[in-house]
Design a protein that fits this description.
The structure is a homodimer. Chain A has about 400 residues and is an alpha/beta fold. The first copy, chain A, has 4 domains: about 50 residues, Molybdopterin biosynthesis moea protein, domain 2 (Alpha-Beta Complex), CATH 3.90.105.10; about 90 residues, Beta Complex (Molybdopterin biosynthesis moeA protein, domain 3), CATH 2.170.190.11; about 140 residues, Molybdenum Cofactor Biosythetic Enzyme, Chain A (3-Layer(aba) Sandwich); about 70 residues, Beta-clip (Beta Barrel). Chain A contains 8 helices and 28 strands. In chain A, the strands form 8 sheets. In chain A, strands 7-4-6-5-9-8 form a 6-stranded mixed sheet. A 6-stranded mixed sheet of chain A has the order 16-13-17-21-20-18, with helices on both faces. In chain A, strand 8 and strand 9 form a beta hairpin. The radius of gyration of chain A is 32 Å and the shape is elongated. The model of chain A has no long low-confidence stretch (mean pLDDT about 90).
């Protein structure tokens, strides 16, 4: 089990191409180059407060009982361009965020001023730079503001916007060929099923699960259990994309095909063939030079839980997308759980309150029922040689 | 502070309309009606195993040393329609998931069979129903499969797909009018800034933040600090949508407008006017009959942290979208932090390892710097009357 996880972690990252995106479309994408700011932020001296821009030396000695009168030459609201340069004995009203006029080197907060006749009386001395945000205080022009490989989250979008950057170079999303295999499968758009047919659930669920990882899905449709057709479709998937995920086709009976098709590729390394897990027929993971193929079990409950347990994080590491927050908490079993010997078991469970304590209970249906995942809160892992986990035993409960 | 949070929690849910969506577009939306299954799942008897469909009574007495020969009349792969009805002494090969032919009432696993000449020799007796998944085992036709108000997650999509449901009634997304106010603001699409102008960051960041909650943004653009213009735009926002979010316009100086505009509405209840928090000029939350207005501070760092702390969960509860997983963990301060008396302080902090222990350190820049949020790992809350939090004190560290 751990072998599989280790293999996935050790895979070299696929080389993803680069595309230019509108900043507004770039959320949760990974930056492909160091980004430098084309401007200083702020690019002008601005006031941190509502108050009066002054020459600091003009205020020296000002106190509550020694008001110093200045002549107001201008009102500068946020967004205004100052029209005048301050001379000795002059001041200008500045709103928070407004530009400081030339000649001024400090701001007196409005609380330390009063208007009398045509003068502004200042009641507090300030030193140069007081309440002024200097040019480049936040970002200097030419500084690297965002490093290559950074995930673009909201604060990152904010910094890029502050610097006036409108398009950003990001890595392309990993593209994944997805198909469902099984002659019994029918698209859910068909309204009547024949005996023997069932709706193809995996295409819909895995398509969404893959796009939730920040990857792009190239859906190749339902493939019948025919050797040539499956081989043709896997060929096509590998030609077009670096990763192929298919579900079904791993059963061990006469209908088994996926493995036989993989065996026909030269240079294929079947890294893990048939990890004996439950739920799920053997899970297969193969490498073909730089390309990767996953074959998931056909039962939707198995396919989705295998996807969550093994593939979800792997794809997110590729795309740079944040990993899903997962819970892992040791809890007591409220009921005995049986497990088949010889298979590593991801047992779907639900949590119920027993006298105020949350305990683990098994979901009664198995992987053949689509409702199993729906009613489960998460899963526990049961070792290959554990046959019974007793009521009262403790297990780590994981959310998918 | 808690007053504000309580108010938000007690708000009656907005009445959202209903729309029909393709199942494939419905992820993370909230179901607007109980959904019944139009079919049984499975809608035919199917085999749980690769093996032989038999009449159970024909196998009675079969053991390893008492093989019972049956005549194979058919091979039924998954997806095939059985062509024959089993008679006494007959069997049919069935793959996992394949339909069980009429006349059969059990499946013998392939492991307990061998082929000899033209016969199949059975080495294990089975009771009726063995390894057969009955019609409706998973879902019965007419059952409510998904209840109204359920969030459509991946297992829910799976159940809907299994029942052949192609369109689902979901609640419309909450629609939110968003605008930035400030005469100094310029869209980031303008390439050259004049003195006094800055790029409008909030529209880009809040637009994304709001859509991350499963809401739809109706962006009304940048509004200058003109009373009539702002009133007109807020009017327009309220006419078109139930929630208006604007940033800026809450300062207390001459440029203050948002509050004066709100005061002109009859029947307005300004629920919270100017919670004294830091970072952020007073935050405003007003109700106008069934409509809601939020005025966020203008500084992007303040606007986004106020959004995270106060509004994010509120919008997610409306849309049904999962709440963001937030961390809350008591950690030690690695350095003294000062805080202004009289303001409830959401202090942006970073975590650093000190001899293997994660400790809290203050971010040195304030809310005027867009980089503050970028470099922070989360925040701590400092009470209005706390002026100093000493190195070594413990505080709960929250992620945004």
């Amino acid at each position: 089990m751990d072998k599989f996880r280790t293999l996935l972690k050790e895979l070299p990252a696929l080389e993803l191409g680069v595309e230019q995106l509108d900043l507004e479309q770039s959320f949760n994408r990974k930056i492909a180059e160091d980004i430098k700011s084309p401007i200083d932020v702020p690019h002008f001296r601005k006031s941190r407060m509502d108050g009066f821009a002054v020459r600091a030396q003009d205020t020296f000695g000002a106190e509550e009982d020694n008001l110093i009168p200045l002549t107001q030459v201008e009102v500068i609201e946020a967004g205004d361009i100052p029209q005048k340069s301050l001379k000795e004995g002059q001041c200008a009203y500045v709103a928070t965020g407004a530009a400081i006029p030339e000649g001024a080197d400090a701001v007196v907060m409005v609380e330390y001023s009063e208007k009398k006749d045509d003068k502004i009386l200042i009641s507090k001395a300030v030193t140069p730079t007081t309440h002024i945000v200097e040019i480049g205080h936040d970002v200097n022009r030419g500084d690297i503001i965002i490093e290559k490989n950074t995930l673009i989250d909201l604060p990152t979008m904010g910094i890029l916007a502050a610097c006036g950057i409108t398009t950003v170079p990001v890595y392309q999303k990993p593209k994944i060929s997805l198909m469902s295999t099984g002659s019994e499968l029918v698209t859910h758009k068909v309204s009547e099923l024949e005996v023997g047919q069932i709706y193809d659930i995996n295409s819909i669920v895995l398509k969404q699960a893959i796009s939730n990882t920040g990857s792009e899905v190239d859906y190749l449709g339902i493939v019948k259990d025919h050797f040539e057709e499956l081989k043709h479709r896997i060929d096509q998937g590998l030609k077009e994309n670096d990763i192929v995920i298919l579900s079904g086709g791993t059963s061990k009976g006469e209908g088994d095909l996926g493995v036989r098709v993989l065996d026909t590729f030269e240079n294929i390394e079947v890294q893990v063939h048939g990890i004996k897990i439950k739920p799920g027929k053997p899970l297969i993971f193969a490498k073909l030079e730089k390309k990767i193929i996953f074959i998931l079990p056909g039962y939707p409950t198995s396919a989705l839980s295998c996807f969550y347990v093994f593939i979800d994080d792997f794809l997110r590491r590729l795309s740079g997308y944040p990993l899903r927050a997962k819970n892992a908490e040791e809890l007591e079993l409220g009921e005995r759980i049986y497990s088949p010997i010889g298979r590593y078991h991801f047992k779907a469970v639900e949590l119920r309150d027993v006298d105020g304590v949350r305990k683990i209970f098994p979901i009664k249906t198995g992987s053949e029922a689509i409702s199993t995942l729906f009613y489960s809160d998460g899963y526990i892992e049961i070792e290959e040689l554990e046959e019974i986990v007793e009521k009262g035993d403790k297990k780590v409960f994981y959310t998918y």
